[in-house]
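Listing S7. Sequence submitted for prediction.
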Amino acid sequence: MAKVLITGADGFTGRYLSSALLERRHHVIGLSRTAGVLENGVEVHACDLTDVAALQEMITTCRADWVVHLAAISFVAHADVTELYQANIIGTRNLLDLLSRADVMPSRILVASSANVYGNRREGILSEDMPSQPANDYGISKQAVESLARIYSGRLPIIVTRPFNYTGRGQSQQFLLPKIVEHFRSKAPSIRLGNIDVARDFSDVRTLVDCYIRLLECEESLGGTFNICSGEAHLLRDIIAMAEEKTGHRIEIEIDPNLVRRDEVKTLAGSKAALEQVIGPVDAIPVEDTIAWMLADG
């Protein structure tokens, strides 16, 4: 049993990860900007990662075996760029610097980056050895997070993950699949979308957190960077068709030019070869099952 400190514990990913860790009998402590207790009983302490003194106190008090760094602004179109860079870069730098000087150093530190570091101008299957070409502020911030991880990798046992699109119950409707699902659940007559003839790699959040825990449990993962993905791309048009089939509801698609990206890549998917080489086969939940699970929520 490990003592696990999760930053961003009250976020979408943190809630699922903390529950999965509890099921494996680990002890979980959460950090977030606001204090509280999660539905699974995990206590979350208020600690802004840009507050060095408060973060130092939490690290000293917790003495964690594992640290999972999820705290970030994850919405690509976040309006306040300064806040995005402060949270994603400065917060990460503070955390890694303080951990590198801690009296008790964790044996595992998982840092969540993003497949957004690859950018939008590549076709096909993306692997970890490809150079990063971020195309927005969020991707740039995550590229910087990875650079920080490399700087501290000589002093800290760091694992970097690059999750592709993932979803599940409880994800904000700012994100595409929850938006689509909610329109079908509410029997909305129409939905405004961008290009629905693009294909993306979608994973279930439950698959993602399982991969995170298996990386933490595996010594061979230390120092590595890993895509977290299904390895398959699904057209958005097909996702909509799945929702129509499962609900029997037909919805009118209104293409909003403001939601269509210029020079958008038609197909993007990740390679999971490096991940499976370290943790073994990933039994990914099919996207059809994820959509059905989300539709049945409530």
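Caption to Listing S7: primary sequence and predicted structure tokens for the chain studied. The first strand starts at residue 3 and ends at 7. Residues 3-167+205-230+271-284 form a domain with the Rossmann fold fold (CATH 3.40.50.720).
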